[in-house]
């Protein structure tokens, strides 16, 4: 199944001239790293709910020799569980007549439209344009790219460097995450993380600005011999920050947003994370992160494309049925009644036979995908946001919000992804962030709640400055995005387990999506698998640009394909 | 094996690149010759325009070719299409070299001189777009200033734009500079502006104290302050009335108070007039609106001559700045810009024991920023001289004693115009310009003993000077002949090591008595 790690390994092997066959039982690329249209997501959910039986379970086959053992492949869909899907809007919009009666109770709120010279029905229809119903979402379903494993790239992280050095970057487009938010004192705040942010922010005082810059500089320039963190080696980052007598505000920004840590993160781990965060700043934008256009499912496909350019063969909708093993070595796989011999077998944990997995746990990630009607924090421009929602004593909930300009959802909507470590189940694990950020009551489509006009909500926000705090709280509540659709599920997280323990010597298991916000783990794992397979070969050397290629023509082998622009052989 | 992808070897690539380069060079030479021939044949047509296009696109800095195009365009009465093509060409050229003076100029010239209906608003949008991509290209900032004035863009909008640019990266001299230009042009409510601008600078200073751009802007904001007073002293010697100012008299100011008297200037800080029958009441300085800026009566020395004109509101703000700088220095005790600004502000506001504080911090600056040591020495000299003048105002100014002040430069020497006995000994004047002594026209006795002087270049003609002490310097050369300009000079005191001077001076003017001590 060509998910992230497997795709990187496949591209790397193909690039050095190995013959690569890539089988996927699905009709899409990416496995647990895929991005789906709304319709495809529904299909995937159906398959997950129903499970898929392996039709080709045959214990004995003429293709398997006596000395060999055939081991049946695992079932990917059985690894997704606790699926909870919920709509918060009606199937269809209420008719105009219903709306009219509903409107009479709220004329106060829509005087502008009447003044515009529209009849009430016209106004209602206009209002209707801004309302959402299930049918409307479904008709726009192809405009969604819903990620199973939403992740960001550190601008100077290993994946970006790999995409550049291997020349795969031309297959993908990215957008900069343009703000880092945090949740503090029951509200969202923008974290100043670059020099420009620190200069411009009004959230911190002058002294704080200097302290923050000093601390960040200290972390960037940190070298083990400097002695700055002496005595904190076995303490937490929080204890270190406390020793610097930072204000509570700064502590929060640094600890939860910049160091991407929590109360228990060891000091040196936090410093390392801060360094990584800061070293990626300013390369492409004022935050350290990139987000792939059209969703994260694009990335495995980029590597698949390179693999195919160098001769890799792809076969979707075809599964491996069993692995043939002799003398602790994989000889071949059986697929669709054929025996396919191989030197190496790379497979995802989801496909792995239970025998290979050993004690790998099934619990891991709690995921939430939300279609919402506006940004969690509106500004005049569309934002691409990362928020590490702190949970006391636990891993934070990673929240990524992407809007229509990244082609993951239709105009007027936003996608909100939440990921955290599974403790209970996805619904309960994500509840704190959902409650804090989103409006999750059912919206019948007639109330004023659903007004996706960002500008008008902005104006009312500003105009409300004189209102009493009680009223503004109510208003804030109504400014929260409305959930239109929510999907929760759990899936395994295997990044912390040694997957090479129970496998034959030439079989390599790849983890599914890990908890971290970035791709560091997948790249590291791919590199390590590749170096075990081909210890002396270069990992993804730069692929030539099309204009650097020429076709090597064997004159004796018949008339070559000739085009007018074909470069002559040197 | 056939039809397999093969990567071209690097040798092959190099050879191909070399061939390509040679071909390009030949083409370049041929084209440039062709264009020059056309110009000599006075070909002013579309074809001639086309002929040089490729050339400029590969090298946008051939001014001669741009000039040829200007000739063609002026003769041709070009259509809208040609003008647009020409604009497009400059655009392409700026993509090749974004800092091409000639391409930027040509674009401006074209819109100014050829285009009958130039779209300056579009240019402004282009500038905005461009500066978002290349925020510190001063060519584009300059061009923007021209464009904004052409399309009469409201100053507020331009201020807003510079603010956006500064917020995305405040290390941008051009943006700060443009703000200063805009505020100068707007000329409105300066204090209010200063207050909000200073808080911006403060924010930049605390974010990154080592970035100069905001500090320099701050210098502009504070440096606009001028002393309250302008007249230092009005004195009469024989039948000449001298008016001594503390700064150059601005061009639009006038001196009044002695009827129709015409004031002559020694320089723009020292004015005089000869009167037979003097009866001065008051001398006034007025501005262009006849507002009295300052006034003084004869021999009445003004106090607080160096105190600056700061409104109460601004005083509060600057005090706030001083406090926050103090805090910044606690966090960053070695930040040069913070220290220097602290010194400047202390001196501006003159709080209690400011002088000692300034000197202490200047000493620190000399240690931290050794490359600019001399600058700090000179600053210290100025402060010391001003402090001396301010504190000796009421005393008899006949005798001036600045012995051992560590002075490295002369400041305000014109305020010693009437002094007779001046002691500048034990200072380091090796790098100063002795011409500043030209104001000491009443001085009879001057000591420059132990001032590390190596020569007497530019020593002015001091007509009343009788005695000059030059001991403990290293003057050996012919520059001492400058002294012969001082017609009353009777005694020069030198030391044993400068015995060579004796001979040189004796050779020129035997009436001078050289004492060797």
TrEMBL record, chain A:
Which family, according to the similarity comment?
Answer: Belongs to the Rab GDI family.
Q: Which UniProt keywords apply?
A: Cytoplasm, GTPase activation, Transferase
Localization, per the record, is:
Cytoplasm
Renumbered to this chain, region (Disordered) spans 449-473, 536-570
Show the PANTHER family listed in the entry.
CHM, RAB ESCORT PROTEIN 1 (PTHR11787:SF4), RAB GDP-DISSOCIATION INHIBITOR (PTHR11787)
According to its UniProt entry, the function of this protein is described as:
Substrate-binding subunit (component A) of the Rab geranylgeranyltransferase (GGTase) complex. Binds unprenylated Rab proteins and presents the substrate peptide to the catalytic component B. The component A is thought to be regenerated by transferring its prenylated Rab back to the donor membrane.
InterPro entries (UniProt xref) = FAD/NAD-bd_sf, GDP_dissociation_inhibitor, Rab_escort
Annotated GO biological process: intracellular protein transport; small GTPase-mediated signal transduction; vesicle-mediated transport
- Give the residue spans that cross the bilayer: none
The reply to whether Lipid metabolism figures as a keyword in the UniProt entry is no
Tell me what this protein is called.
Rab proteins geranylgeranyltransferase component A
The record's section on Pfam families has: GDI (PF00996)
Stretches with biased composition (Acidic residues): 546-555
The UniProt record lists the keyword Protein biosynthesis: no
Q: Which GO terms describe its cellular component?
A: cytosol; nucleus; Rab-protein geranylgeranyltransferase complex
Per its UniProt entry, which superkingdom is the organism in?
Eukaryota
Q: Which SUPFAM superfamilies match?
A: FAD-linked reductases, C-terminal domain, FAD/NAD(P)-binding domain
Supply one GO molecular-function term.
GDP-dissociation inhibitor activity
Q: Where mainly found?
A: cytoplasm
Automatic annotation (TrEMBL), chain B:
Q: Which reaction equation describes what this protein catalyses?
A: geranylgeranyl diphosphate + L-cysteinyl-[protein] = S-geranylgeranyl-L-cysteinyl-[protein] + diphosphate
**Native source organism of the sequence:** Aphis craccivora (Cowpea aphid)
Q: What is this protein called?
A: Geranylgeranyl transferase type-2 subunit alpha
Q: Which GO terms describe its cellular component?
A: Rab-protein geranylgeranyltransferase complex
> What does the record list as GO biological process?
prenylation
The family assignment reads: Belongs to the protein prenyltransferase subunit alpha family.
Task: Keywords in alphabetical order, please.
Answer: Prenyltransferase, Repeat, Transferase
> Which stretches are annotated as coiled coil?
none
């Amino acid at each position: 199944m060509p998910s992230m790690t497997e795709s990187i390994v496949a591209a790397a092997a193909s690039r050095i001239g190995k013959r690569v066959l890539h089988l996927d039982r699905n009709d899409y690329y990416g496995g647990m790293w895929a991005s789906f249209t709304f319709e495809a997501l529904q299909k995937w959910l159906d398959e997950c709910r129903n499970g898929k039986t392996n039709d080709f379970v045959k214990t004995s086959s003429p293709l398997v020799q006596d000395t060999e053992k055939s081991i049946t492949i695992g079932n990917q869909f059985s690894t997704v569980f606790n699926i909870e899907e919920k709509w918060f809007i009606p199937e269809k919009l209420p008719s105009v007549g219903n709306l009219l009666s509903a409107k009479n109770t709220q004329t106060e709120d829509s005087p502008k439209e009447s003044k515009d010279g529209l009849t009430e029905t016209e106004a209602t229809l206009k209002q209707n344009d801004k309302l959402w119903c299930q049918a409307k979402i479904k008709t726009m379903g192809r405009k969604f790219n819903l990620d199973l494993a939403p992740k960001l790239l550190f601008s100077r992280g290993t994946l970006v460097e790999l995409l550049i050095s291997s020349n795969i970057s031309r297959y993908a487009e990215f957008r900069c995450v343009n703000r880092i938010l945090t949740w503090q004192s029951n509200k969202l705040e923008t974290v100043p993380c670059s020099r420009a942010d620190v200069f411009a922010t009004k959230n911190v005082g002058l002294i704080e600005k200097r302290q923050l810059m000093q601390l960040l500089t200290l972390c960037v320039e940190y070298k083990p011999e400097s002695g700055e963190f002496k005595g904190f080696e076995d303490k937490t980052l929080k204890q270190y920050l406390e020793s610097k007598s930072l204000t509570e505000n700064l502590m929060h920004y640094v600890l939860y947003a910049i160091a991407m840590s929590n109360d228990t993160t060891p000091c040196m781990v936090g410093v390392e994370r801060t360094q990584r965060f800061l070293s990626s700043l300013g390369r492409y934008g004022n935050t350290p992160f990139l987000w792939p256009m059209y969703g994260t499912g694009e990335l495995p496909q980029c590597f698949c494309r390179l693999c195919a350019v160098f001769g890799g063969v792809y076969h979707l909708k075809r599964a491996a049925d069993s692995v043939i093993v002799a003398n602790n070595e994989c000889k071949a796989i059986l697929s669709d009644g054929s025996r396919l011999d191989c030197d190496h077998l790379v497979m995802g944990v989801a496909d792995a036979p239970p025998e290979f997995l050993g004690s790998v746990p099934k619990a891991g990630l709690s995921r939430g995908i939300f279609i919402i009607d506006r940004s969690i924090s509106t500004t005049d421009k569309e934002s691409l946001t990362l928020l590490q929602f702190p949970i006391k004593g636990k891993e934070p909930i990673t929240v990524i919000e992407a809007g229509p300009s990244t082609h993951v959802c239709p105009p007027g909507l936003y996608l909100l992804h939440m990921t955290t470590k599974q403790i209970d189940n996805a619904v309960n694990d994500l509840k704190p962030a959902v409650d804090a950020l989103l409006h999750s009551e059912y919206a019948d489509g007639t109330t004023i709640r659903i007004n996706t006009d960002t500008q008008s909500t902005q104006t009312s926000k500003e105009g409300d400055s004189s209102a009493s705090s009680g009223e503004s709280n109510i208003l804030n509540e109504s400014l929260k995005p409305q959930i239109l659709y929510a999907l929760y599920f759990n899936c395994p997280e295997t990044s912390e387990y040694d997957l090479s323990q129970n496998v034959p010597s030439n079989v390599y298991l790849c983890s599914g999506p890990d908890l971290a916000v970035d791709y560091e783990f997948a790249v590291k794992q791919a590199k390590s698998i590749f170096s075990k397979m081909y210890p002396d070969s270069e990992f993804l050397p730069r692929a030539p640009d099309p204009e650097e290629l020429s076709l090597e023509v064997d004159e004796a082998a018949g008339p070559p394909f000739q085009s007018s622009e074909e470069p002559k052989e040197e | 094996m056939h039809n397999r992808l093969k990567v071209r070897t690097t040798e092959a690539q190099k050879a191909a690149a070399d061939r390509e380069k040679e071909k390009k060079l030949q083409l370049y030479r041929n084209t440039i010759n062709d264009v020059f021939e056309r110009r000599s044949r006075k070909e002013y047509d579309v074809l001639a325009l086309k002929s040089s296009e490729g050339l400029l696109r590969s090298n946008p800095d051939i001014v001669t070719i741009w000039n040829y195009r200007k000739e063609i365009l002026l003769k041709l009465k070009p259509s809208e299409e040609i003008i647009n093509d020409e604009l497009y060409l400059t655009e392409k050229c700026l993509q090749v070299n974004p800092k091409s003076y000639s391409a930027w100029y040509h674009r401006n010239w074209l819109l100014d001189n050829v285009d009958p209906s130039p779209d300056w608003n579009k240019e402004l949008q282009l500038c905005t777009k461009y500066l978002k991509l290349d925020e510190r290209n001063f060519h584009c900032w300059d061009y923007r200033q021209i464009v904004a004035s052409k399309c009469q863009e409201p100053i507020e909008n331009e201020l807003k734009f510079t603010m956006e640019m500064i917020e995305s990266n405040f290390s941008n001299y051009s943006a700060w500079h443009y703000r200063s230009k805009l505020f100068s042009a707007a000329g409105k409510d300066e204090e209010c502006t200063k207050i909000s601008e200073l808080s911006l600078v403060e924010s930049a200073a605390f974010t990154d104290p080592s970035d100069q751009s905001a500090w320099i802007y701050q210098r502009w904001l504070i440096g606009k302050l001028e002393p309250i007073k302008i007249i230092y002293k009005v004195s009469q010697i024989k039948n000449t009335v001298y008016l001594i100012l503390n700064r150059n008299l601005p061009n639009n100011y006038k001196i009044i108070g002695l009827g129709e008297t015409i004031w002559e200037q020694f320089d723009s800080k020292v004015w005089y007039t000869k009167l037979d029958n003097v009866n001065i009441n008051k001398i006034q300085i007025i501005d262009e609106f006849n507002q009295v800026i300052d006034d003084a009566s004869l021999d009445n020395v003004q106090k607080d001559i160096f105190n600056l004109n700061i409104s109460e509101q601004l005083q509060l703000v600057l005090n706030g700045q001083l406090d926050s700088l103090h805090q910044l220095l606690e966090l960053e005790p070695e930040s040069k810009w913070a220290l220097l600004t602290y010194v400047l502000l202390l001196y501006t506001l003159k709080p209690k024991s400011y002088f000692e504080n300034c000197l202490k911090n200047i000493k620190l600056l000399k240690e931290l920023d050794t490359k600019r040591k001399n600058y700090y020495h000179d600053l210290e000299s100025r402060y010391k001289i001003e402090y001396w003048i301010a504190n000796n105002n009421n005393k008899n100014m006949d005798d001036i004693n600045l012995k051992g002040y560590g002075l490295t430069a002369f400041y305000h020497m014109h305020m010693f115009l009437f002094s007779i006995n001046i002691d500048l000994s034990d200072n380091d004047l090796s790098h100063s310009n002795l011409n500043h002594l030209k104001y000491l026209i009443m001085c009879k006795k001057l000591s420059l003993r132990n001032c590390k002087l190596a020569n007497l270049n530019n020593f002015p003609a001091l007509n009343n000077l009788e005695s000059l002490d030059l001991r403990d310097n290293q003057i050996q050369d012919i520059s001492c002949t400058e002294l012969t300009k001082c017609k009353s000079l009777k005694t020069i005191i030198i030391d044993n090591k400068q015995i060579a001077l004796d001979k040189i001076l004796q050779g020129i003017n035997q009436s001078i008595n050289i004492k060797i001590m």
